[in-house]
Predict the structure.
Amino acid sequence: MFHPVPVAARSDGWSAQRQGDFIGWLAATGCVAEAARRVGMGRQSAYRLRARPGAAGFAAAWDAALGVVHRPVNLASAKATGLAAGYRYRAGLVKVRMRNGRFRASASIPDNNALLQYLAQLDRGLASRPPGWEYEGCG
């Protein structure tokens, strides 16, 4: 599982679904060019996505798909992923489903841990407000 890399929404771009499918095909084929082709993207585009800020989880999933030893990424940490709790909550996690070494599907699943972190951040923000702040400006 990994958080999708933040990208602008485009029909021909790296959506969360396309990122998950790429990782699945990469695990199944062992070839970056083939996996990219199967999701309708280019090899260089995949490498650029991997190098983007916030791609730590995607890069770790890429390495795992190829059987490369990699440092584990703490998906619950904004420092480790480079992604804020609000983004991680809204984007969710991408889970790749394999069976007998074959790619079956990828799906987005909720990231409840990120939701709890995001709510705690919002709660801390409200707690830092002075008493009666909600009535300021009313008249």
